[in-house]
TrEMBL record:
EC number: 1.4.1.1
Residue stretches making up the Alanine dehydrogenase/pyridine nucleotide transhydrogenase N-terminal domain: 4-137
Record protein name field: Alanine dehydrogenase
Lineage: Bacteria, Pseudomonadati, Bacteroidota, Cytophagia, Cytophagales
Domain named Alanine dehydrogenase/pyridine nucleotide transhydrogenase NAD(H)-binding: residues: 149-297
Species of the source: Arundinibacter roseus
Length: 375
C-alpha cells in the first residue's frame, strides 16, 4: 500500500504522523512511503532523516494526496485539504467528527474511508490512541502548574517540593484516570503533598496501592472538594465522563474559599472543562485570572511538546497503520475489532453512531458496509 504523510497545516500543530523509524517499518514490509518536505521539522525530524529511512520526499501537499492510498495524519483535514482527498482513499488520523458538521459533510462528499484515532477502542473500552496524549497532558499539567505558581507568573509563590524546614506545596488532582495518575506521579516526584480524587472506588483502591507515600486518595464529592481546595496550591482537573460534557466540580462561588494565587489547570477543557470558570486558552496566552485564582486551560497541551508527543502518538498508531497497510483497510477492519471501531465514515456513509446522532444524519452498521464496500 502506498503511504502518504502530509505536513500538518492546522494552526500551531507541530506534530507529524510518522517518524523516520516508522518509515523504515513500512519500507521493510514493502510499502512505499511519501513524505511532504519539512513535515517533520516541527518535531525535530529532518527531511534527510526521512530520506535515509527510505521515504520519497515530495514538494507539495497536493503530490502527497495524489499518490497515497493511505494518508496518515495527526489533526483532522482542514478546508483547503478537502478537495485533495480522493474517493476510496484511506485517512487515518484524529477527526473528532461530532464537533464539526462541516468536516463530516466534507468527508461524506469526498467518499473517503475515515478511520478516526479517537474511536479505536480495545475490549476493555480503553482508547489506545487517546491514552498517549492524556499521558503527555497529565505529566505536563504539573510542569505548567509549577511554573504558574511562581509569583512573577501570577501564582502564590510556592515551590511545590518545599525545602528543608519548609513544607512542600499541596496538589489536588480531580479524576484518577490517565491524566490524573500521570499528574499525581509527577507531583509526587517533585516532593509535593498530593491528594487524588475519583468517584470510582475500585480506581481509588488501585491508586492507593501503586502511588508513593506522599499521595493520598479521597472520594470525590462536593463536600470533600470544598474542604480540599482551601489548602491546595495547585488543582488539576482531569475528569471524564465518556460521551458527556465534564461536570463542573469547582463552581464560581467556591473560588473564594481558595487562597489568592492558587493555580487551576483544567486539562478536561477539551470536553468543556471541569471548573465553572474555565474557558479554553492557547499556548500564546495560556492563563487568565478570575477572583485572584490563576486558570490554565489550554485545549491542546501536547502541542507544546511536539517531539515527545509525536513519539508517544506514533508508538501507539504505528502497529495499527502497519496492519492496515499489510491487509488493506477492509480485511484489517474485519479481522481487528479495535480498528473496526475506528471507522467513522466509509465511502460516503456514516458508520459511527455518535457521529450520525450528533447531526441527525443517516447511519449504517459498520459490518453491513464492510461486506459491501468497494476495494
Ligand atoms: N487539554 C488537553 O490538551 C488534553 C489532552 C489529553 C486529554 N485531555 C482530556 O483530559 C480528560 C481526562 O482524560 P483521561 O484520559 O484521564 O480520562 P480517563 O477516562 O482515563 O479518566 C477520567 C477519570 O475521571 C473520573 N471521574 C468522573 N467523574 C468524576 C468526578 N465527578 N470526580 C472525580 N473523578 C471523576 C473517572 O472515574 C475516571 O477515572 C479528558 O477530558 C480528555 O479529553 C485533555
Amino acid at each position: 500500500m502506498i503511504i502518504g504523510v502530509p505536513k500538518e497545516i492546522k494552526n500551531n500543530e507541530n506534530r507529524v504522523a510518522l517518524t523516520p523509524a516508522g518509515v523504515t517499518a513500512f519500507s521493510r514490509k514493502g510499502h512505499p512511503v511519501y513524505v511532504q518536505k519539512t513535515a517533520g521539522h516541527g518535531s525535530g525530524f529532518s527531511d534527510e532523516a526521512y530520506a535515509e529511512a527510505g521515504a520519497v520526499m515530495l514538494n507539495t501537499i497536493e503530490e502527497v494526496y495524489a499518490i497515497a492510498e493511505m494518508i496518515i495524519k495527526v489533526k483532522e483535514p482542514i478546508a483547503s485539504e478537502y478537495p485533495l482527498i480522493r474517493e476510496n482513499q484511506l485517512l487515518f488520523t484524529y477527526f473528532h467528527f461530532a464537533s464539526s458538521e462541516e468536516l463530516t459533510h466534507a468527508m461524506i462528499a469526498q467518499k473517503a474511508i475515515c478511520l478516526a484515532y479517537e474511536t479505536v477502542e480495545k475490549d476493555d473500552r480503553s482508547l489506545p490512541l487517546l491514552v498517549p496524549m492524556s499521558e503527555v497532558a497529565g505529566r505536563m499539567s504539573i510542569q505548567e502548574g509549577a511554573k504558574y505558581l511562581e509569583k512573577p507568573m501570577g501564582g502564590r509563590g510556592v515551590l511545590l517540593g518545599g525545602v528543608a524546614g519548609v513544607k512542600p506545596g499541596e496538589v489536588l488532582v480531580l479524576g484518577g484516570g490517565i491524566v490524573g495518575t500521570q499528574a499525581a506521579k509527577m507531583a509526587a516526584g517533585l516532593g509535593a503533598y498530593v491528594t487524588i480524587m475519583d468517584i470510582s472506588l475500585p480506581r481509588l483502591r488501585y491508586l492507593d496501592d501503586v502511588m508513593p507515600a506522599n499521595v493520598d486518595t479521597l472520594m470525590s464529592n462536593e463536600y470533600n472538594i470544598r474542604q480540599q481546595i482551601q489548602t491546595a496550591d495547585l488543582i488539576i482537573g482531569g475528569v471524564l465522563i465518556p460521551g458527556a460534557k465534564a461536570p463542573s466540580l469547582i463552581t464560581r462561588d467556591m473560588l473564594k474559599l481558595m487562597r489568592p494565587g492558587t493555580v487551576m489547570v483544567d486539562v478536561a477543557i477539551d470536553q468543556g472543562g471541569c471548573f465553572e470558570t474555565s474557558k479554553a486558552t492557547t499556548h500564546q496566552e495560556p492563563t487568565y485570572v478570575v477572583d485572584e485564582i490563576v486558570h490554565y486551560c489550554v485545549a491542546n497541551m501536547p502541542g507544546a511538546v511536539p517531539y515527545t508527543s509525536t513519539l508517544a502518538l506514533t508508538n501507539a498508531t504505528l502497529p495499527y497503520a502497519l496492519q492496515l497497510a499489510d491487509l488493506g483497510w477492509q480485511a484489517a477492519c474485519i479481522k481487528n475489532e479495535e480498528l473496526r471501531k475506528g471507522l467513522n465514515i466509509v465511502q460516503g456513509t456514516i458508520v459511527y453512531k455518535g457521529v450520525s446522532e450528533a447531526f441527525g444524519l443517516p447511519f449504517q452498521e459498520v459490518t453491513t458496509v464492510l461486506e459491501t464496500a468497494e476495494v
